[in-house]
Amino acid sequence: MLIYNVTAKVTWAIHEKWMQWMKEKHIPEVMATGCFTGNQVLRLLETDEAEGPTYAIQYRAEKMEDYQEYISTHAPAFRKELTERWGDNFIAFRSLMEVVG
């Protein structure tokens, strides 16, 4: 199993609206692609929150082909929408992990 992790630092000015939008719109739309079997949202602790909180949104994929389909077919439009909607009020980085235990 693979975990596609998106870590995002969000400004205090938008964090509540951003989280609501993520839970009600963005995450359901990502899940509707059929590329992932589950997800979870986490808040990082023991980090500098002077500029805002940091979250990790994790999506579970059964196989590499599902993840690759998401990245090539769906991710560009989702990333564009995030940037257009929230501008420079957040920064994000993405990583792919394999569950080994």
Rg over CA atoms = 14 Å
Overall geometry comes to globular
**What is the tally of helical segments?**
2
Spell out the helices and strands N to C: EHEEHE
Major sheet summary line? 4 strands, antiparallel
Quickly give the structural class: alpha+beta
Strands, count: 4
Task: Please give the share of residues in helix.
Answer: 40-55%
Q: Provide mean pLDDT, rounded.
A: 97
The largest beta-sheet arranges its strands as: 2-3-1-4
Q: Distance N terminus to C terminus?
A: 10 Å
> Which regions have little confidence, pLDDT < 50, spanning 5+ residues?
none
- What is the beta-strand fraction? 25-35%
**Assembly status:** single chain
Architecture blueprint of SSEs:
Blueprint: E1 2-10, H1 15-32, E2 38-43, E3 54-61, H2 64-86, E4 90-98
Antiparallel strand pairs: 1-3, 1-4, 2-3
In short:
The protein is α+β, with helices and mostly antiparallel strands and 101 residues long. It has two helices and four strands.
Keywords for this structure?
single chain; 101 residues; alpha+beta; four-stranded antiparallel sheet; 2 helices; 32% strand
